[in-house]
Amino acid sequence: MERVPILKIGDILLVSIQVDMSDQTAVQLQEDLAERIVATGSHGVIIDITALDIVDSFVGRMLSAIASISKVLDAETVVVGMRPAVAITLVELGLSLNGIRTALNVERGMELIAAARADEWHEADGDEDAETTATS
Amino acid sequence: MERVPILKIGDILLVSIQVDMSDQTAVQLQEDLAERIVATGSHGVIIDITALDIVDSFVGRMLSAIASISKVLDAETVVVGMRPAVAITLVELGLSLNGIRTALNVERGMELIAAARADEWHEADGDEDAETTATS
């Protein structure tokens, strides 16, 4: 069975989807990701779909499911590398990718996750000056 | 035709090989990588082979070719995520992966590339204290 590899880069897990997702591969990926998030304590998941020519409703649902699972495990999910044609098709199909953040590339995705984490810290602290005090 | 995506993370290009490489895919990947190294000025290429069950002589030659091309373009190549069974098979087949550095995972690969770059800087400077003076 095909298994999509999960790469750990710092605080982030990176998944590059290159193969056609079967039901089984999708379920396996969700399980593997959930396990890795817990095992590594990662706070972000980046899913690269550069290689996908088509994002149909099945893949869309899978991405949403991954985002929901990650959220429960306190990790942000960002989908990166979407091709222009894929974006157009998504809109034409009326698929909205619920609860999924997107970014242009992996680097932007990492920035987005870092920013989201920083926001959460501020909210948790209830301290607007956290950034300035941290650097002093 | 399948095309292996190349992800840019900071100063490094990351390639995760998940599909069976045909002649055409391999040539395409080499061309794409060479172009991206030049376009981005990257100094490191990390090739993740976590998904590969087998590294035969064809894939071995492809990895060596990528390493040679990258070297000419002033980029280090590190192969990461090799499975234990793959390593055993490589040795049994007598394949040596000429000129290829390996690391356990992407993070170690990044460290290896950073260390290799630092060494080069020292050599170019001819200054053993470059590290301490840079921080002062």
TrEMBL record, chains A, B:
<dbReference type="Pfam" id="PF01740">
    <property type="entry name" value="STAS"/>
</dbReference>
<protein>
    <submittedName>
        <fullName>STAS domain-containing protein</fullName>
    </submittedName>
</protein>
<dbReference type="InterPro" id="IPR002645">
    <property type="entry name" value="STAS_dom"/>
</dbReference>
<dbReference type="InterPro" id="IPR036513">
    <property type="entry name" value="STAS_dom_sf"/>
</dbReference>
<feature type="domain" description="STAS">
    <location>
        <begin position="2"/>
        <end position="113"/>
    </location>
</feature>
<dbReference type="InterPro" id="IPR051932">
    <property type="entry name" value="Bact_StressResp_Reg"/>
</dbReference>
